[in-house]
């Protein structure tokens, strides 16, 4: 039976990044993914799932050798971030405030996954099991027997990067705290009549925010947060009807739009009570799902991967075992508080901005008004959001 140091379940953005990061340390890796990632044709329409990739994540993907494979003609650099509720309280963050050339890139999730798969396919110490999936794990004192659909393998550790509904997290009996926000988010791909923009913006309404994420050639991804019932109604409309509703509901900044595609997601928050249990380690959405309000989900996941890589590198450099309990705890200690802080911050913003009281509304708008003039504090908050605090 083939033996591995780490078996990673899930080859999405986080699982694939983990495979490359740990493969770079010389560890023998098994990557198990249910679905073979399909290639993208250069001219195919933009995927619905895109992410705002922070400077920190971009740098990390560069060190993994994956950023080089991102087709930047399908991605969009953004330099400014606008946030407001009432017009007088419009607040804009600019990359100049943190001495950077940009704040991040909008990139299709699939492009990032494919770029990472191109890199991992060049590592002789990474074996892909794809399409394949986990059936059973049997724990022994020093290793795990892992039954896959196709065959059985052995591994010292199992790393769960199998997403928000992680099967491994459930098999390991790791509990969760979390809730359903009672809202959905609709992602709408549009072609606007305007040139490509260098700004991403978000306007808050009592029903939830609406957001604009720029894409190349005047395209954009719009995000519309609303009650589940309203998003269900909007999902049933034709593209032309939806374009009409968007024009009525969104700020008057889009110009004429054509709706090209749409999809809806329920919003949930989940945080695993432990990131490490015995020989099981959780990363990315398997460990935490955050309100997508500020586009931080996968950026936090990449930070998990980097922290695990650093913990393993330190152990190996000191002649220790990478799977030592102390090493695994160092990973959890590095990530859990940081993820919790970001999740709680997003929830605070979400709760404050959805509060119906006119007094709270005035206070939050004054807060935004003040933050536009907050100098160093404002640039510190921006650097934190970009992952370069
Ligand atoms: C509406 C919305 C907008 C978002 N916008 C942003 C944004 O702008 N910026 C940002 O940083 N984040 C954003 N996010 C969050 C981001 O999409 C997620 O954090 C990210 O996709 C998580 O990646 P992952 O690899 O951990 O999990 P996933 O992407 O869920 O990947 C899990 C992988 O595991 C595989 N898998 C699952 N179970 C098994 C199994 N048993 N065996 C084998 N394989 C398995 C799946 O096929 C999949 O490939 C957004 C999320 C939503 C819902």
From TrEMBL:
UniProt entry keywords in alphabetical sequence? FAD, Flavoprotein, Monooxygenase, Oxidoreductase
InterPro entries (UniProt xref): FAD-bd (IPR002938), FAD/NAD-bd_sf (IPR036188), UbiH/COQ6 (IPR010971), UbiH/COQ6_monooxygenase (IPR051205)
FAD-binding domain residues are 5-337
SUPFAM superfamilies in the record: FAD/NAD(P)-binding domain
User: Is Ribosomal protein tagged as a keyword?
Assistant: no
Cofactor list: FAD
Q: In which pathway does it act?
A: Cofactor biosynthesis; ubiquinone biosynthesis
The UniProt entry, under Pfam families, shows:
FAD_binding_3
Q: Which NCBIfam families match?
A: Ubi-OHases
The family classification in the record reads: Belongs to the UbiH/COQ6 family.
Protein name in the entry: 2-octaprenyl-3-methyl-6-methoxy-1,4-benzoquinol hydroxylase
